[in-house]
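Model the whole thing, not chain by chain.
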Amino acid sequence: MYYPSQKKPPRTLYKFPGGLHLPDNKAQSTTESTVRAALPGKLVLPIHQHIGAPSQIAVQVGDRVLKGELIANPQGRISAAVHAPSSGTVCAVAEHAVPHPSGLPALCVVIETDGQDAWGELPPAIDDFEHCEPGLLLERIRASGIVGMGGAAFPTSVKLEPENSRRIDTLVINGAECEPYITCDDMLMRERPAEIVAGIAVMKRLTGAANCLIGIEDNKPEAIAAMTRAVEQQGVADIELVVIPTLYPSGGERQLIRVLTGKEVPSGGFPAHIGVVCNNVGTAKAVADAVLLGRPLISRYITLTGEGVANPCNLEVLIGTRSNELIAQAGGYTGREQRLIMGGPMMGFTLHADNVPIVKASNCLLAASAREAPNPGPATACIRCGMCAEVCPVSLLPQQMYWHARAKDLEKTQEYHLFDCIECGCCSHVCPAHIPLVQYFRFAKNESWDQERERKSAELARRRHEAKLARLALLEAEKIARAQKKKAALARSKPANRETDAGSDPKKAAIEAALKRAAEKKARLAQQGVKPQNTDNLTDAQRRQIQQADTRREQLTDNVVSDDSAQTGASKDS
Amino acid sequence: MQFVTITSPHTDRPNSVTVTMLWVIIALVPGAAAMTWYFGWGIVIHMLLASAAAVAAEALVLRLRGRPVVPAVSDLSAVVTALLLAIALPPLLPWWLTVLGIVFAIVVAKHLYGGIGYNPFNPAMIGYVLLLVSYPVEMTTWLPPIMLNQHPLDLMQTMNAIFGGTLPPGLDWDALSMATPLDEMRNQLNQNKMISEIRRSPLWGDFGGLGWEWVGNWYLLGGLILLYKRIISWHIPVAMLGSVLFMAMLFHFLDQESHPFGLFHIFSGGTLLGAFFIATDPVSAATTRKGQLIYGTCIGLITYVIRRWGGYPDAVAFAVLLMNMAAPTIDYYTQPRVFGERSAGDD
């Protein structure tokens, strides 16, 4: 007898173009299980840790805050709240070094911890999230300050929001962690799989996705085993764990979606456009904490590694802990450290000092030695070998974009799809001439944005100018119309006047009388020592006229402002 | 603690121009060794002479241009150009012609256009064509391969011939020299002989000229090394060899007695050397995958057309240079579909 197999056939996986097999260097930091980092004396919390508008500070210097208490409110739709990671006193609201490629300081709330680590009042847990209003869940996620923990730090509530009736059919959970050295997601999946799966269930409920695919690279067997167990135990329907081949950058959102579903996110579009939402495993865990425990995002897993660190490891750290304190907990520097990198070797950026705080998006601190990250030396001329195009996961022609970026021909770079570049660094890595290609592309992007901004502000100035001219023309036209009306009225009343003029010229007499009266009044006032003001003795009609002019002016300015804002809104949409 | 700030990626870069060029030189070794075996010391002498002249010329121009000399010379690109030119030259060519060719290649074809990466034409082929057009007699005076050569010259005699223009007593140039198989085939065909008649001569091997065809095999081996090391991709060589073979076979089957078997064209002249080492020069070739197929195919076509109907026995150099001109245009029209970009059909 033939029995059809009960086992599901393995899922068909798809390929993305290019990619690199890199030495993964992940073993160093996964030898020991993750421990919680010691409570630091000071926590430095930048108010802009996410994509979107900076949050608005809700505390003052001297305020006592409890663990989990809100210290900065989100400002606008795309923004995120910031919470106090431990109890203590706000000792400063000032600029502090932050992890940013520019190396520039930014506004931070500094909390001096009191060592008690006392929780504040937390919102109630939502245990029955399956039957909870989606709006309520979204509000909880937003209030908990959750952003994408894979590195982009895009506010998660916005991502999970059912956007104008786009149907989401697949929720992709990113556990690929393709970049060398970084192991924080790996360790999180090994140690907190149940929480991750719970978070996935919440996200699934929110997006209404029928399927959920968890993508994990095949170089993380322990994480795969732990996650498989958790998925089985929790019995959430339609969650499938998919083991994908290790190939950098399979953890890129678009690349992972391609590998798992075969679909390509349209150029310039979002995953939602093809019915997919993608979230990192760390984000899933944060969502579970927020919904099931009521806890805001105040801590995360981070990898400390590289030959410059004595004991490479993973730590669970409070957001705002400064890097040097963490390095000290990992045994300090070995003396071989050459560069301190926030993030991985491919996409991370170097820090010029180690006093920057860990932010929500920080996944790795890599103290690389000269052997691990040797100075590539000066770039030489491009020999057009095309290796860059071969490894590009987006099928770009990096070499052509480079020529045009070098020539500052921004339009041409955009013709070559500059804005589809995900800055994964594959091209720069393989370039035999050691040209920092990605750097050129970042430059071209920034220049393009600058140009766009300039173009927009010029456009706004032009509109304002035109509105002003129109206003002036209108006023002028009104003035002429008034004058003509007056003239016409005068012309009509003239024949009557002429008759009286012919007699004793009472007009002249009246003027003379008035002048005399004025002189007398002046003399009288001078005697009394009062100086006249020309607005003092206005007639009622004059006052009315002044008031009318004022209101007219107000209305005009109001109109122009609202007009402008409406127009800029429209141009943004287009 | 303060750290240096450098742009990503923070990795040990696997590739460098010097290493790439070094692999090209290594891949040339089998073919060059085979040529030395068949045609004597002249090949080695020209390779050394051309390399020295190339490095000297490059250093001089770099100084004149006010560019750092050592980093540019140490990328070995000038040596590669010199070797590619040298192995295309007749073994007993006067030394000053070699120097003239390579200096023109480096100074005019490479540096006057801006140096490595900026030259629109393959410098080695520019040097070769300059010599071929200006000194056609010297450039077509080849030696017979070792098994047909009754008077093989030793090292000293070869040096005398190259540097002094003197041959050992009792020998003259006519007795010593022999046309290349491509030249021979062409001349015989022009005398209205039939292929079956021509091939009766002991000059011929299985497909091409005796000895010559084996040199082609060794270049093929070198090409495979480059493919294995991923220094070149298969697109240009396969397209070029495929189109030469297609054209040759097509005409062979139309008229077997006046068109040699297709593999004759593959194993004669510069076809294999050109397909793997010259047409694949990254600087002057097309760079998109589709573009490389077009580029290679056109080189093959032009090569066959000039060999069959043109005024020169071999045509790889001309074909490569003609297609060098077309490469930027080909690249422009063969951009790959970007990931996530919609094709014209769907919305």
